[in-house]
Write a structure and sequence with these properties.
Length: 684
């Protein structure tokens, strides 16, 4: 939020100041990895700038850091010609092949030269043009001669500077690789699984998909990063690759530290071998090492083939791969109705485990790879959770195979499948009576991070569904002692293979009912997650619960109300609105409410007007409240929550690690600084 009373001149100054500060913090955070302010404070600076730019659109700078949050929608990416064609590298896979490369180089330029070794980042290549120090365009490789203009999306990547500093050349191109750190990829994938979505195959696919997204606001939320490794232009400061790359760092560009000059082939081998071992420790994926002749005039002498330079080569590490027969393809139905094709394989040993099943992702991938039942398929285990099929050995295709035809009906309930435009997956729309969807939703409801009913498990739920006792999660709360006592289930003893009958005894029944009863204490945010609304994972549920406080408010919220909440995007908003529009869901919720499930956030006492007329700025980490919660709490008591300290601020509520800026501003303006404890006293 900004001070509304700034005049244009003051606003211009403030915008400049804020931009400078934000750029500085961006650099410290994303390039130096040494932030000096909290994420919260950073967001507040950005918020203030956004508000000012909205108020004075004519003052918005072309390189404003607010572009990092995206928002521009591109319908179709413009095609841009590369000033210098984007060549690829030839690959080698063995020391012998590398030796051949070295021999060719020595034949061309003699023995007096140096190599530069770098990591081969496994992402999506990008070519960025800076003109007068400003990021002008960012273009994908495309066909090597022209690519897609993805500038708006690339501008959201915090480690890509929008404006350079220092003695940069007036017009140059720098190339590099966009990637997603593995840990962040895994967290996002985990979230997708929780939300009932199919996980992405690997960080590179996720990155490629993200860069081509039309909505840059979504791109801004994905943790993309970028390393730069190749400089092109007329007036570069040095005559060799290594010095130029180090120099480019001074302009603020994110040049990776994994770079070494090597005199001999032995040193190159050592670099390769070291990183082959070390690469598992890196926070991102690499698929090899790139070896380049350092000196530009020697590069010129060696020249190019049609596709790649003769002065550089990639040494690729072997992905762990195995070949085995595809026995059958089956389809799984998730709780949201999403269909995932799974390959049943002849068991094969791969990277330490026996693999029997692998992901086939979706219909398009099966079609592109032309995977057929009976084929010898290549299975790979990369950074992914599940092994995947990456190709088919066509030379070993048996006779009489048929192209695989993807199912058109749900394998579980027979309903014709649907596939929405632009989505990779097919869905079974039969929410109401498709068995795995019913079961999946109930299992999600009782899961640990949701209602946490640990006295129920998959077996017990299956039994209750089979016996017609439960059809949805609200039915759980109708279960009576007599319904469950003596309920039988036949299980096969894994050791003897014999069938055994089990029946619920008094103790089990009491236990189950107690667990269900105890779940009534589950806080609202977890209940919200338990409902299993598409795209509402734990984090989103928390956000929504903190902002709307009750299911009634949330059900009344419009699409616009929803997207106005920090970090709630269009996709989520749409899904939430759709969910509550359904009569069936409304009914489900009113039944749960009747049973006493919590549909309101806990608040400390009733609302009041104790803070009426007061503007409070909260900053730093608080013990009792999250960022959204403190804002809501101030407002609940009639106050106004602001983000920057100004003449209008009545109190600065200081949490842990509050920034010095805010404190000194408060001191300067005579704004009283209060603690969380003081605040709680104020609201009684
Ligand atoms: S230099 C003309 N350096 O690998 C040489 N490329 O297969 C330009 N890559 O197109 C490329 N890490 O997408 C270079 N340290 C690195 C790299 C790298 C990854 C990618 C890049 C390139 C592809 C070649």
């Amino acid at each position: 939020m900004s001070d509304n009373n700034l005049n244009k001149d003051e606003a211009r100054k403030r915008i400049e100041k804020l931009s400078e500060e934000i750029n500085e913090h961006n650099h410290r955070y994303y390039i130096d990895a040494q932030p000096v302010i909290s994420d919260y404070e950073f967001d507040k600076l950005l918020e203030e700038l956004t508000a000012l730019e909205q108020q004075f659109p004519e003052l918005k700078q072309a390189d404003s850091p607010t572009q990092r949050v995206g928002g521009d929608i591109t319908k179709e990416f413009a095609q841009v010609e590369h000033k210098y064609p984007m060549l690829s590298l030839s690959n080698t896979y063995s020391p012998e092949e590398l030796k051949d490369f070295d021999t060719r180089v020595r034949k061309g330029i003699g023995d007096d030269f140096e190599y530069v070794c770098e990591l081969k980042y496994d992402g999506v290549s990008i070519s960025i043009n800076y003109v007068d120090g400003l990021l002008q365009t960012a273009v994908t490789r495309g066909n090597g001669y022209q690519g897609d203009d993805v500038t708006t999306n690339i501008k959201t990547i915090r480690s890509v500077p929008l404006r350079l500093k220092g003695d940069f050349p007036a017009d140059f191109v720098i190339r590099g690789e966009i990637f997603m750190p593995v840990e962040k990829f895994e967290a996002l994938n985990k979230q997708r699984i929780e939300e009932g979505e199919t996980p992405f195959a690997n960080p590179r696919n996720f990155t490629a998909g993200t860069i081509k997204m039309q909505d840059s606001a979504i791109v801004a939320q994905r943790p993309l990063d970028c390393y730069l490794y190749f400089l092109l232009g007329e007036n570069l400061p040095h005559e060799n690759h290594y010095d130029n790359m180090l120099h480019a760092k001074k302009w603020g560009l994110n040049v990776p530290p994994y770079i070494a000059k090597c005199k001999t082939l032995e040193e190159v081998y050592a670099f390769i071998n070291d990183w082959e071992k070390e690469r598992k420790q890196l926070p991102f994926e690499i698929d090899g090492v790139v070896i380049k002749v350092n000196d530009y005039s020697q590069q010129e002498e060696l020249g190019y083939t049609a596709k790649s330079p003769r002065w550089a080569i990639a040494y690729k590490y072997k992905a762990e791969q195995a070949v085995t027969r595809l026995k059958s393809i089956e389809y799984q139905v998730g709780r949201t109705g999403a269909i995932t094709p799974v390959a049943n394989l002849e068991p094969v040993f791969l990277a330490g485990t026996t693999v029997k099943r692998a992901s086939l992702h979706n219909a398009d991938i099966i079609k592109t790879l032309d995977v057929r039942v009976g084929d010898m398929v290549k299975v790979e285990k990369g950074g992914e959770i599940i092994p995947k099929i990456v190709g088919v050995d066509l030379t070993r295709r048996p006779e009489g195979t048929e192209p695989h035809s993807y199912i058109t009906q749900c394998p579980e309930c027979g309903t014709p499948l649907e596939r929405k435009e632009g989505e990779a997956l097919h869905y079974c729309p039969n929410e109401e009576s498709c068995p795995p969807q019913i079961k999946g939703r109930i299992l999600h409801f009782i899961s640990r991070n949701a209602m946490d009913i640990d006295t129920l498990g998959e077996g017990r739920i299956e039994m209750m569904i089979d016996k017609g006792l439960v059809h949805n999660f609200a039915d759980l709360y109708d279960l009576q002692y007599d319904d469950l006592l003596g309920l039988e289930r036949v299980i096969t003893d894994p050791e003897s293979g014999k069938e055994k009958k089990l029946s619920f005894q008094e103790k089990t029944v009491n236990n189950i009912l107690e667990g269900i009863g105890a779940s009534l204490d589950t806080p609202f945010e977890k209940v919200l997650f338990a409902l299993g609304i598409r795209y509402v994972g734990q984090t989103v549920a928390k956000k929504l619960a903190a902002s709307f406080r009750s299911i009634d408010n949330l059900m009344q919220a419009s699409y616009d109300d929803l997207v106005a909440v920090d970090e709630i995007g269009e996709r989520i908003a749409e899904s939430v609105v759709n969910y509550f529009e359904s009569y069936k869901h409304q009914k489900l919720i009113s039944r749960l409410k009747e049973k006493g499930v919590k549909f309101e956030s806990e608040t400390s006492g009733p609302a009041s007007d104790k803070l009426k007329g007061l503007t409070i700025v909260a900053s730093g980490k608080l013990e009792k409240y999250s960022r959204e919660e403190i804002k809501a709490e101030i407002e609940r008591h009639g106050g106004k929550a602001a983000s920057s300290v100004s003449g209008k601020t009545d109190y600065l509520l200081a949490g842990e690690n509050i920034g010095q800026n805010k404190l000194s501003k408060a001191k300067e303006l005579g704004v009283p600084v209060i603690s969380e404890e003081d605040f709680i006293k104020m609201i009684g």
